[in-house]
Amino acid sequence: MLEIRDLTVRYGDKTVFDDFSLCVADREILCVLGKSGCGKTTLLNAVAGLLPYMGEIHGADSVSYMFQEDRLVPSLTALNNITFAISHLYKDKKEAENIAKEALEKVGLGDCADRYPHTLSGGQAARVSLARAFCYPSRLLIADEPFKGLDIATADALERYFLELFDSSGKSVVIVSHSVEECVRLADRVVVLGGSPCRVTYDAVIPLSRDERRGDVAFCANEAEKIKAAIIAS
Fold this sequence. Notes:
The chain is α/β, with parallel strands linked by helices.
């Protein structure tokens, strides 16, 4: 679905990517890991068209982007933060509002539609951001550490909402993360980036389904160790 071919990105004299290629399948969750500064966020920004690059990127004509911060508009309610992002896509504004309301219900915030960002907890704000990202009718969603800074219980709940929305969305997803365990829980496939210029140093499909992984602590621990070793070696 997403095909990156011969990507080259430079910042001044520094070449971050040089003839870099990567593919993401339809309805696949790809998690991208690597040492700090290796180019993970640069890759997302290139896919989103937020920085100049050379090469070809196919399948990114329409992209939903979840940033590390929730980036909610302070002067808009939770509901209006979502409708603001999608209303221009619908002739009937009521239709956009109904879609936004349904999305809030799906992340457990149906009773928070009229609340403003400053009255929401960090976890609630993250859920509004999540609902907004999945509401946008793109085939591709990219996320830069979407569960960063959340406590364990909140992150676990958000991951479950994320997967429920993913299952009904038909989207492909690319997640950049520093959490190996998070990637083992979420991903269909994991890649590790490393080197300079950046390249793929590890690429593996996780063989068990996400439901099977939740009940297999030994499997998850083994997968995490393999990925951690790949990151250290990258």
